[in-house]
Protein backbone atom coordinates (compact mmCIF):
# COMPACT_ATOMS: atom_id res chain seq x y z
CA UNK A 1 0.00 0.00 0.00
CA UNK A 2 1.21 3.50 -0.89
CA UNK A 3 0.04 6.75 0.66
CA UNK A 4 0.38 10.25 -0.76
CA UNK A 5 0.95 12.68 2.13
CA UNK A 6 0.11 16.38 1.90
CA UNK A 7 1.25 18.97 4.47
CA UNK A 8 0.44 22.71 4.40
CA UNK A 9 -0.07 23.60 8.08
CA UNK A 10 2.52 26.35 8.26
CA UNK A 11 5.22 27.68 5.94
CA UNK A 12 6.19 24.59 3.95
CA UNK A 13 4.20 23.13 1.07
CA UNK A 14 5.05 19.43 1.14
CA UNK A 15 4.02 16.21 -0.60
CA UNK A 16 5.47 12.72 -0.25
CA UNK A 17 4.77 9.11 -1.14
CA UNK A 18 5.41 6.48 1.55
CA UNK A 19 4.82 2.74 1.17
CA UNK A 20 4.47 -0.18 3.52
CA UNK A 21 7.39 -2.59 3.57
CA UNK A 22 5.79 -5.61 5.23
CA UNK A 23 8.73 -5.57 7.67
CA UNK A 24 7.48 -5.15 11.24
CA UNK A 25 10.70 -3.48 12.43
CA UNK A 26 10.78 -0.91 9.62
CA UNK A 27 7.13 -0.65 8.57
CA UNK A 28 7.40 2.24 6.09
CA UNK A 29 9.68 3.44 3.31
CA UNK A 30 9.83 6.89 1.66
CA UNK A 31 9.47 6.71 -2.15
CA UNK A 32 9.57 10.47 -2.68
CA UNK A 33 9.44 13.60 -0.54
CA UNK A 34 9.24 17.18 -1.82
CA UNK A 35 9.24 20.33 0.33
CA UNK A 36 8.79 23.88 -1.02
CA UNK A 37 9.86 26.29 1.71
CA UNK A 38 8.29 29.74 2.06
CA UNK A 39 11.18 31.10 4.14
CA UNK A 40 12.09 33.65 1.46
CA UNK A 41 8.49 34.95 1.35
CA UNK A 42 8.30 35.58 5.11
CA UNK A 43 11.90 36.64 5.81
CA UNK A 44 11.23 40.18 4.68
CA UNK A 45 8.51 40.47 7.39
CA UNK A 46 10.60 38.89 10.15
CA UNK A 47 8.09 36.09 10.74
CA UNK A 48 5.26 34.13 9.18
CA UNK A 49 2.43 36.18 7.67
CA UNK A 50 -0.60 33.83 7.58
CA UNK A 51 -2.26 35.40 4.52
CA UNK A 52 0.95 35.23 2.48
CA UNK A 53 1.44 31.63 3.61
CA UNK A 54 -2.00 30.54 2.36
CA UNK A 55 -1.49 32.28 -0.98
CA UNK A 56 1.92 30.70 -1.48
CA UNK A 57 0.51 27.23 -0.73
CA UNK A 58 -2.07 27.80 -3.49
CA UNK A 59 0.73 28.66 -5.91
CA UNK A 60 2.94 25.73 -4.99
CA UNK A 61 0.69 22.79 -4.21
CA UNK A 62 0.03 21.44 -7.72
CA UNK A 63 3.70 21.46 -8.68
CA UNK A 64 4.84 19.95 -5.37
CA UNK A 65 2.33 17.08 -5.54
CA UNK A 66 3.14 16.44 -9.22
CA UNK A 67 6.87 16.36 -8.46
CA UNK A 68 6.41 13.90 -5.58
CA UNK A 69 4.23 11.60 -7.70
CA UNK A 70 6.65 11.71 -10.64
CA UNK A 71 9.63 10.96 -8.38
CA UNK A 72 7.83 8.09 -6.65
CA UNK A 73 7.40 6.31 -9.99
CA UNK A 74 3.88 5.07 -9.30
CA UNK A 75 0.41 5.78 -8.04
CA UNK A 76 -1.09 5.81 -4.55
CA UNK A 77 -3.84 3.96 -2.72
CA UNK A 78 -4.84 6.63 -0.18
CA UNK A 79 -4.20 10.27 0.67
CA UNK A 80 -3.13 11.47 4.12
CA UNK A 81 -3.48 15.17 4.83
CA UNK A 82 -2.73 17.41 7.81
CA UNK A 83 -6.06 18.45 9.33
CA UNK A 84 -4.54 20.55 12.14
CA UNK A 85 -3.19 22.18 14.17
CA UNK A 86 -1.76 25.09 12.18
CA UNK A 87 -2.77 28.24 10.31
CA UNK A 88 -6.34 27.76 9.19
CA UNK A 89 -5.96 29.37 5.76
CA UNK A 90 -2.87 27.27 5.08
CA UNK A 91 -4.43 24.03 6.31
CA UNK A 92 -7.46 24.63 4.08
CA UNK A 93 -5.33 24.70 0.93
CA UNK A 94 -3.89 21.23 1.55
CA UNK A 95 -7.19 19.86 2.75
CA UNK A 96 -9.19 21.14 -0.24
CA UNK A 97 -6.56 19.81 -2.62
CA UNK A 98 -6.48 16.41 -0.89
CA UNK A 99 -10.26 16.14 -0.88
CA UNK A 100 -10.48 16.95 -4.59
CA UNK A 101 -7.79 14.45 -5.50
CA UNK A 102 -9.23 11.72 -3.26
CA UNK A 103 -12.62 12.20 -4.86
CA UNK A 104 -11.23 12.25 -8.41
CA UNK A 105 -9.18 9.08 -7.85
CA UNK A 106 -11.73 7.34 -5.59
CA UNK A 107 -9.18 6.68 -2.85
CA UNK A 108 -9.63 7.01 0.94
CA UNK A 109 -8.76 10.28 2.64
CA UNK A 110 -7.02 10.00 6.03
CA UNK A 111 -6.88 13.08 8.30
CA UNK A 112 -3.62 13.39 10.25
CA UNK A 113 -2.61 15.46 13.27
CA UNK A 114 0.54 17.46 12.51
CA UNK A 115 2.23 16.45 15.79
CA UNK A 116 1.27 12.80 15.24
CA UNK A 117 3.20 13.19 11.99
CA UNK A 118 6.27 14.53 13.83
CA UNK A 119 6.14 11.59 16.25
CA UNK A 120 5.80 9.03 13.45
CA UNK A 121 8.80 10.58 11.69
CA UNK A 122 10.83 8.72 14.33
CA UNK A 123 9.30 5.36 13.39
CA UNK A 124 9.57 6.12 9.68
CA UNK A 125 13.27 6.62 10.07
CA UNK A 126 14.30 4.16 12.77
CA UNK A 127 11.52 1.57 12.94
CA UNK A 128 9.22 0.96 15.90
CA UNK A 129 10.65 2.34 19.15
CA UNK A 130 10.91 0.12 22.24
CA UNK A 131 7.76 0.94 24.22
CA UNK A 132 6.85 2.51 26.54
CA UNK A 133 8.52 5.59 25.13
CA UNK A 134 8.50 9.23 26.17
CA UNK A 135 8.60 11.64 23.23
CA UNK A 136 9.14 15.39 23.18
CA UNK A 137 7.60 17.24 20.23
CA UNK A 138 9.27 20.60 20.04
CA UNK A 139 8.50 22.97 17.18
CA UNK A 140 7.65 26.56 16.35
CA UNK A 141 4.13 26.17 17.70
CA UNK A 142 4.38 23.37 20.28
CA UNK A 143 6.40 21.98 23.15
CA UNK A 144 4.57 18.82 24.14
CA UNK A 145 5.67 15.77 26.08
CA UNK A 146 3.94 12.45 25.34
CA UNK A 147 4.02 8.93 26.65
CA UNK A 148 3.46 6.15 24.13
CA UNK A 149 2.57 2.75 25.48
CA UNK A 150 0.97 1.40 22.32
CA UNK A 151 1.87 2.38 18.74
CA UNK A 152 -0.23 5.30 17.56
CA UNK A 153 -1.62 6.17 21.03
CA UNK A 154 -0.16 9.34 22.48
CA UNK A 155 -0.80 10.43 26.08
CA UNK A 156 -0.04 14.09 26.80
CA UNK A 157 2.14 14.45 29.91
CA UNK A 158 2.89 18.17 29.72
CA UNK A 159 3.15 21.15 27.39
CA UNK A 160 4.25 24.74 27.36
CA UNK A 161 2.07 27.20 29.23
CA UNK A 162 3.23 30.12 27.08
CA UNK A 163 5.82 30.23 24.27
CA UNK A 164 6.86 27.13 22.37
CA UNK A 165 10.62 26.45 22.45
CA UNK A 166 10.94 27.16 18.71
CA UNK A 167 9.04 30.40 19.17
CA UNK A 168 11.50 31.42 21.92
CA UNK A 169 14.40 30.65 19.56
CA UNK A 170 12.76 32.76 16.84
CA UNK A 171 12.01 35.71 19.15
CA UNK A 172 15.46 35.77 20.75
CA UNK A 173 17.10 35.54 17.32
CA UNK A 174 15.06 38.52 16.16
CA UNK A 175 16.07 40.49 19.24
CA UNK A 176 19.73 39.67 18.61
CA UNK A 177 19.41 40.76 14.97
CA UNK A 178 19.98 37.24 13.65
CA UNK A 179 16.97 37.23 11.32
CA UNK A 180 14.36 34.61 10.53
CA UNK A 181 14.05 31.69 11.04
CA UNK A 182 15.85 32.05 14.33
CA UNK A 183 16.50 28.48 15.46
CA UNK A 184 19.16 27.60 12.89
CA UNK A 185 20.80 31.06 13.28
CA UNK A 186 21.14 30.68 17.07
CA UNK A 187 22.38 27.12 16.65
CA UNK A 188 25.17 28.36 14.34
CA UNK A 189 26.32 31.44 16.25
CA UNK A 190 26.12 29.68 19.63
CA UNK A 191 29.06 27.50 18.58
CA UNK A 192 31.27 30.59 18.86
CA UNK A 193 29.99 31.61 22.30
CA UNK A 194 30.49 30.72 25.95
CA UNK A 195 27.32 29.00 27.18
CA UNK A 196 28.01 30.05 30.79
CA UNK A 197 28.60 33.72 29.98
CA UNK A 198 25.12 34.87 31.03
CA UNK A 199 23.33 33.14 33.94
CA UNK A 200 19.81 33.08 32.47
CA UNK A 201 17.33 31.37 34.83
CA UNK A 202 15.72 27.99 34.21
CA UNK A 203 11.96 28.05 34.77
CA UNK A 204 10.78 25.06 36.73
CA UNK A 205 7.00 24.79 37.08
CA UNK A 206 5.88 22.77 40.05
CA UNK A 207 2.23 23.77 40.33
CA UNK A 208 -0.78 22.53 38.37
CA UNK A 209 -2.21 24.72 35.62
CA UNK A 210 -5.46 26.31 36.79
CA UNK A 211 -6.66 26.29 33.17
CA UNK A 212 -6.03 22.58 32.75
CA UNK A 213 -6.76 20.87 36.09
CA UNK A 214 -6.93 17.46 34.40
CA UNK A 215 -3.17 17.65 33.83
CA UNK A 216 -0.93 17.32 36.85
CA UNK A 217 1.08 20.21 35.39
CA UNK A 218 4.38 19.14 36.88
CA UNK A 219 5.70 18.28 33.45
CA UNK A 220 4.74 21.58 31.84
CA UNK A 221 7.20 24.05 30.34
CA UNK A 222 7.41 27.84 30.30
CA UNK A 223 9.77 29.86 28.13
CA UNK A 224 8.38 33.39 28.36
CA UNK A 225 10.35 34.17 31.56
CA UNK A 226 13.59 33.17 29.87
CA UNK A 227 12.72 35.29 26.84
CA UNK A 228 12.06 38.28 29.11
CA UNK A 229 15.43 37.75 30.84
CA UNK A 230 17.16 37.87 27.46
CA UNK A 231 15.25 41.06 26.54
CA UNK A 232 16.30 42.70 29.84
CA UNK A 233 19.90 41.58 29.52
CA UNK A 234 20.18 42.91 25.96
CA UNK A 235 18.59 46.24 26.96
CA UNK A 236 20.98 46.59 29.91
CA UNK A 237 24.03 45.82 27.76
CA UNK A 238 22.92 48.30 25.10
CA UNK A 239 22.59 50.97 27.77
CA UNK A 240 26.05 50.13 29.19
CA UNK A 241 27.67 50.21 25.76
CA UNK A 242 25.69 53.29 24.72
CA UNK A 243 24.32 51.67 21.50
CA UNK A 244 20.71 52.01 20.39
CA UNK A 245 18.40 49.34 18.97
CA UNK A 246 19.54 50.08 15.42
CA UNK A 247 23.07 48.83 16.15
CA UNK A 248 23.92 45.22 16.82
CA UNK A 249 25.85 44.18 19.92
CA UNK A 250 29.41 42.97 19.25
CA UNK A 251 29.57 39.52 17.60
CA UNK A 252 31.27 37.82 20.57
CA UNK A 253 28.61 39.10 22.93
CA UNK A 254 25.75 38.00 20.68
CA UNK A 255 27.39 34.56 20.49
CA UNK A 256 27.64 34.38 24.29
CA UNK A 257 23.98 35.37 24.74
CA UNK A 258 22.85 32.87 22.07
CA UNK A 259 24.93 30.05 23.63
CA UNK A 260 23.71 30.81 27.16
CA UNK A 261 20.07 30.99 26.03
CA UNK A 262 20.38 27.78 24.04
CA UNK A 263 21.97 25.92 26.97
CA UNK A 264 19.06 26.84 29.26
CA UNK A 265 16.44 25.78 26.68
CA UNK A 266 18.19 22.49 25.97
CA UNK A 267 18.68 21.67 29.67
CA UNK A 268 15.06 22.55 30.49
CA UNK A 269 13.76 20.30 27.70
CA UNK A 270 16.03 17.38 28.48
CA UNK A 271 15.58 17.57 32.27
CA UNK A 272 11.84 17.12 31.79
CA UNK A 273 12.18 14.44 29.10
CA UNK A 274 14.56 12.26 31.08
CA UNK A 275 12.72 12.78 34.39
CA UNK A 276 9.51 11.58 32.73
CA UNK A 277 11.34 8.64 31.16
CA UNK A 278 12.61 7.57 34.57
CA UNK A 279 9.24 8.09 36.25
CA UNK A 280 7.42 5.99 33.65
CA UNK A 281 10.17 3.42 33.31
CA UNK A 282 10.45 4.15 29.59
CA UNK A 283 12.49 1.86 27.34
CA UNK A 284 13.27 4.66 24.87
CA UNK A 285 12.96 8.40 24.42
CA UNK A 286 12.36 10.44 21.27
CA UNK A 287 12.63 14.06 20.19
CA UNK A 288 10.79 15.30 17.09
CA UNK A 289 9.74 18.60 15.50
CA UNK A 290 11.74 21.50 14.06
CA UNK A 291 13.75 22.21 17.22
CA UNK A 292 15.00 18.60 17.23
CA UNK A 293 17.31 19.83 14.44
CA UNK A 294 19.25 21.76 17.11
CA UNK A 295 22.78 20.40 17.28
CA UNK A 296 23.27 21.02 21.01
CA UNK A 297 19.94 19.33 21.82
CA UNK A 298 20.93 16.29 19.76
CA UNK A 299 24.41 15.99 21.25
CA UNK A 300 23.25 16.37 24.82
CA UNK A 301 20.27 14.02 24.37
CA UNK A 302 22.58 11.37 22.93
CA UNK A 303 25.03 11.71 25.81
CA UNK A 304 22.33 11.67 28.53
CA UNK A 305 20.74 8.61 26.84
CA UNK A 306 24.08 6.81 26.63
CA UNK A 307 24.86 7.41 30.29
CA UNK A 308 21.45 6.00 31.28
CA UNK A 309 21.49 3.10 28.80
CA UNK A 310 18.36 4.53 27.17
CA UNK A 311 18.05 4.59 23.37
CA UNK A 312 17.39 8.12 22.04
CA UNK A 313 15.50 8.54 18.74
CA UNK A 314 15.85 11.73 16.71
CA UNK A 315 14.88 12.22 13.04
CA UNK A 316 17.42 13.15 10.37
CA UNK A 317 17.50 16.87 9.61
CA UNK A 318 15.25 16.49 6.54
CA UNK A 319 12.56 14.79 8.63
CA UNK A 320 12.85 17.01 11.70
CA UNK A 321 11.37 20.16 10.16
CA UNK A 322 7.98 20.07 8.44
CA UNK A 323 7.61 17.52 5.64
CA UNK A 324 4.91 15.30 4.17
CA UNK A 325 6.68 11.93 4.54
CA UNK A 326 5.83 12.03 8.25
CA UNK A 327 2.20 12.82 7.39
CA UNK A 328 2.01 9.89 4.97
CA UNK A 329 3.57 7.58 7.60
CA UNK A 330 1.10 8.69 10.29
CA UNK A 331 -1.64 8.30 7.66
CA UNK A 332 -0.61 4.68 7.03
CA UNK A 333 -0.73 3.96 10.76
CA UNK A 334 -4.17 5.55 11.04
CA UNK A 335 -5.54 3.91 7.89
CA UNK A 336 -4.55 0.50 9.26
CA UNK A 337 -6.34 1.45 12.50
CA UNK A 338 -9.53 2.04 10.49
CA UNK A 339 -9.51 5.85 10.34
CA UNK A 340 -10.82 7.57 7.20
CA UNK A 341 -12.45 10.95 6.68
CA UNK A 342 -15.24 12.03 4.38
CA UNK A 343 -15.38 14.95 1.97
CA UNK A 344 -16.95 17.02 4.76
CA UNK A 345 -13.64 16.97 6.66
CA UNK A 346 -12.73 20.44 7.91
CA UNK A 347 -9.47 22.04 8.98
CA UNK A 348 -9.09 22.46 12.74
CA UNK A 349 -6.39 24.98 13.74
CA UNK A 350 -6.35 23.73 17.34
CA UNK A 351 -7.02 20.03 16.82
CA UNK A 352 -6.09 18.04 19.95
CA UNK A 353 -3.87 15.02 19.30
CA UNK A 354 -5.94 12.46 21.20
CA UNK A 355 -9.00 13.28 19.08
CA UNK A 356 -7.16 13.02 15.77
O1 LIG B 1 8.30 21.66 13.09
P1 LIG B 1 8.64 22.93 12.40
O2 LIG B 1 9.38 22.88 11.07
O3 LIG B 1 7.35 23.80 12.16
C1 LIG B 1 6.33 23.84 13.11
O4 LIG B 1 5.52 22.90 13.13
O5 LIG B 1 6.38 24.83 13.91
O6 LIG B 1 9.49 23.81 13.46
C2 LIG B 1 9.95 25.10 13.15
C3 LIG B 1 10.71 25.64 14.35
C4 LIG B 1 11.09 27.11 14.22
O7 LIG B 1 10.77 27.79 15.41
C5 LIG B 1 12.60 27.05 14.02
O8 LIG B 1 13.28 28.20 14.51
C6 LIG B 1 12.95 25.82 14.82
O9 LIG B 1 11.93 24.89 14.53
N1 LIG B 1 14.26 25.26 14.42
C7 LIG B 1 15.33 25.20 15.26
C8 LIG B 1 16.41 24.67 14.50
N2 LIG B 1 15.95 24.42 13.23
C9 LIG B 1 14.62 24.77 13.21
N3 LIG B 1 15.46 25.56 16.55
C10 LIG B 1 16.67 25.41 17.12
N4 LIG B 1 17.76 24.94 16.46
C11 LIG B 1 17.68 24.55 15.16
N5 LIG B 1 18.75 24.08 14.51
ZN1 LIG C 1 5.92 20.98 12.58
Write the layout of secondary structure elements.
Layout: E1 2-7, E2 12-20, E3 28-37, H1 39-43, H2 50-72, E4 78-84, H3 88-105, E5 109-113, H4 114-126, E6 133-138, E7 143-148, E8 155-159, H5 165-175, H6 182-190, H7 224-241, H8 251-279, E9 284-288, H9 295-308, E10 312-313, H10 317-320, H11 325-336
Parallel strand pairs: 1-4, 4-5, 6-9, 9-10
Antiparallel strand pairs: 1-2, 2-3, 6-7, 7-8
This protein binds 5'-O-[(R)-(carboxyoxy)(hydroxy)phosphoryl]adenosine (KG4) and zinc ion (ZN).
How helical, in percent, are the residues?
Answer: 40-55%
CATH class category name of the largest domain = Alpha Beta
Q: How widely separated are the two ends?
A: 22 Å
Tally of structural domains = 2
Cα gyration radius (Å): 20 Å
Q: CATH superfamily name of the largest domain?
A: ATPase, nucleotide binding domain
Number of helices: 11
- Order of the strands making up the biggest sheet: 3-2-1-4-5
The second-level CATH architecture of the largest domain is: 2-Layer Sandwich
Strand content: 15-25%
Bound molecules: 5'-O-[(R)-(carboxyoxy)(hydroxy)phosphoryl]adenosine, zinc ion
Tell me the series of helices and strands, N- to C-terminal.
Answer: EEEHHEHEHEEEHHHHEHEHH
The major β-sheet equals: 5 strands, mixed
Secondary-structure-derived class: alpha/beta
Which topology of the largest domain does CATH recognise?
Nucleotidyltransferase, domain 5
How many strands in all?
10
Segments where pLDDT lies below 50 for 5+ residues? Answer: none
Choose one word for the global shape: globular
| Overall average pLDDT | 94
Amino acid sequence: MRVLGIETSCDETAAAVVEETGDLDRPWRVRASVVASQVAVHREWGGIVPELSARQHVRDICGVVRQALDASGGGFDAIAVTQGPGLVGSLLVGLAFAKGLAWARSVPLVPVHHLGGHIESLVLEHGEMPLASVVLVVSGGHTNLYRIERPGRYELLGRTRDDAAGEAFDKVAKLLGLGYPGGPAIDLIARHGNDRAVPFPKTRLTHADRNAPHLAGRRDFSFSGLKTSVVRHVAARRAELGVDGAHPLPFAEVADIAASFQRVVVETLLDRLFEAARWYDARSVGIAGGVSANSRLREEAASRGASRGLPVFVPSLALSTDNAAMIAAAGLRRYRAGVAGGLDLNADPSLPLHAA
